[in-house]
Design brief:
The structure is a single chain. With about 210 residues, the chain is mainly alpha-helical. The chain has six helices and no strands. It is about 80% helix and about 0% strand. The two termini are about 20 Å apart. InterPro entries: GPCR_Rhodpsn, GPCR_Rhodpsn_7TM. It is found in: Membrane. It comes from Trogon melanurus.
C-alpha cells in the first residue's frame, strides 16, 4: 500500500494542487497509473474500497492516453484530421472528463480516510467494496453525460452558422449552450470546493494522528 499511497500523493498534486496540467505532471501521472494498475492486480493487494477507488482513478487516465496518442500521431506522421475543430474539442473534453473524474475519486478517497480515522466502527457498513464500485460507476456516468453535453455544445456551435434562425437546431443550440455554460461554472466552483474540503480533511487527519 506504500506504493499506492505515493500514487495518491502524485494524483493529489496533479489535480488538486497544480492549477493546470503540464507535460511533466501528465507523463508522471500516466506512468503512475500504469504502475498502480499493475500493483492492484497483485495477490498481495486485498480487495478493499480504497483499492476499488484507486483502480477507477487509474483507469481515468485512459482518457489522457487517447488524447496524447492522437496528438503524437498527428504531429509525427502529419496525419490530417477530417474535422480538426470537432476532434480538437473532443480531445479537450476528454481531458476535462479525466480531471473531473480524478478530482471526484480523490475526494472519495479522502472522505474514506476521514471516516476510517474518526468513525472507524460507525462507518464500517458504509465503507464496503460494493459501495465503492457503485460510487465509481455513478461518477463515470455523470462525467460521461457532462462530456457528451460539452461535445454537443461544441458541435452545435460549429454548425450554427448554416442553420436557419428559427430552426429547432438553433433552439437546441441555445438550450445546450446555456446548460453547458452553467455546468462549466458549476464545475469550476465545485473544483474549488473540493480543494478546500480535501485540505481540511487531511489537516484534521494529520493533527489527529500527531496528537495520538
Amino acid at each position: 500500500m506504500k506504493d499506492l499511497r505515493r500514487y495518491l500523493v502524485l494524483k493529489y498534486v496533479q489535480y488538486l494542487v497544480l492549477s493546470s496540467a503540464n507535460a511533466v505532471s501528465t507523463c508522471l501521472g500516466l506512468l503512475g497509473s500504469l504502475y498502480a494498475t499493475v500493483t492492484l492486480r497483485s495477490a498481495k493487494v486485498s480487495s478493499k474500497p480504497t483499492a476499488v477507488l484507486i483502480s477507477s482513478l487509474a483507469k481515468a487516465d485512459i482518457l489522457v492516453s487517447i488524447s496524447v496518442v492522437a496528438e503524437v500521431v498527428a504531429w509525427t506522421f502529419g496525419v490530417g484530421l477530417s474535422s480538426p475543430a470537432f476532434t480538437s474539442a473532443l480531445l479537450q473534453n476528454l481531458l476535462t472528463a479525466n480531471t473531473h473524474i480524478s478530482c471526484l475519486l480523490l475526494s472519495c478517497v479522502a472522505f474514506e480516510a476521514y471516516l476510517i480515522t474518526f468513525f472507524p466502527t460507525e462507518s464500517r457498513h458504509v465503507r464496503t467494496v460494493k459501495n465503492a464500485r457503485m460510487t465509481s460507476r455513478i461518477i463515470w456516468i455523470l462525467v460521461t453525460m457532462e462530456c457528451a453535453l460539452f461535445q454537443t455544445d461544441d458541435l452545435l456551435k460549429m454548425s450554427s452558422t448554416s442553420a436557419p434562425s428559427l430552426s429547432p437546431c438553433v433552439l437546441w443550440f441555445h438550450f445546450s449552450g446555456t446548460a453547458a455554460a452553467l455546468l462549466r461554472s458549476l464545475s469550476y466552483f465545485l473544483g474549488i470546493l473540493l480543494r478546500i474540503v480535501n485540505v481540511y480533511i487531511y489537516y484534521k487527519i494529520f493533527f489527529s494522528m500527531s496528537n495520538r
